[in-house]
Amino acid sequence: MRRFVDPSGHSMIVDPVASFANRIICRCRCTCRCRAERRRRVKPVNVITEAIIGDAIAIHREMGPGLLESTYEACLAALLARRGLKTERQVAMPVLFQGERLDCAYRIDLLVEGIVVVELKTVTKLEPVHFAQMMTYLKLSGCAVGLLINFNVVRLVDGVRRVVRGYDERSLSSDPTAFSAIDSVEGG
Predict the structure, then answer these.
(1) Does a structural domain hold residue 4?
(2) CA distances in angstroms from 39 to 22, 34, 86, 100, listed in the order given
(3) CB 116 within 8 A of CB 147
(4) Residue % of the chain over a pLDDT of 90
(5) What is the DSSP string of 103-137?
(6) CA-based Rg of the chain, rounded to a whole angstrom?
(7) Is residue 61 part of a domain?
(8) Four-residue CA torsion sign, 75, 76, 81, 84
(9) Which parts of the chain fold into alpha helices (H)?
């Protein structure tokens, strides 16, 4: 269990063993309804990430591995648009440095509903630099959840990682090489 204070000032405890939907437990003693607010925010994120992963699996089954990242991006954007999800492609992320806005060519592959960052890869293996890139995108965009999807695998489920900003898995793992902020996708 880790304790932190969210941007709205509420004291929270994170339970990394619990499922994602039940991981954050509010310990706020104020009169607001932060637990109900959290439930409203979490459910849409889970529904959106489920839709993204489902569509990515459908694309991978039909197209297979080995295509360019831009091909998978176009296909995924089209399927998400058919679902009625607002999807932006190649979203530029500026950097604020000492109060000055700098355009540094950071581009998010897909931003879904303005709350989920999707970074697509076609590499033999996801490396720590890919997770660092995702964490940078989450920080710059202000989003809390991202999906890192590698299409260059036999089964797409093996190439999907859910990344949550502020969640450090290394503090719970005895493996010093464990990536931070990763939830593996379970299932077939």
Answers:
(1) no
(2) 9, 9, 21, 36
(3) yes
(4) 52
(5) EEEEEEEEEETTTEEEEEE--SS--HHHHHHHHHH
(6) 17
(7) yes
(8) positive
(9) 34-63, 69-82, 128-141
Number of H helices, E strands in the chain: 3, 9
Distance, first Cα to last Cα, the chain: 29
Task: Kindly tell me the burial class for residue 109, based on how many C-beta atoms sit within 10 Å of its own C-beta (0-12, 13-18, 19 or more).
Answer: buried
**What range defines the domain where residue 93 resides?**
43-184
* 131 inside domain: yes
Q: How many domains is the chain built from?
A: 1
C-alpha separations of 44 from 50, 64, 81, 114, 145 in Å: 10, 29, 16, 12, 11
CA nearest neighbour of 49 among 144, 137, 111, 116 = 116
Among 23, 39, 13, 35, CA closest to 162: 23
In this predicted model, what pLDDT tens digit does every residue of 34-77 receive, in sequence order? 555 555 555 689 999 999 999 999 999 999 999 999 999 999 99
Q: Strands across the sheet with 182-184, in order? A: 87-97, 100-112, 116-121, 145-150, 160-164, 182-184
CA 12 from centroid of its chain's CA atoms: 20
Domain assignment present for residue 37? The answer is no
Q: What is the CATH number of the domain that holds 66?
A: 3.40.1350
The token pair at 27 is 């310990």
pTM, to two decimals: 0.67
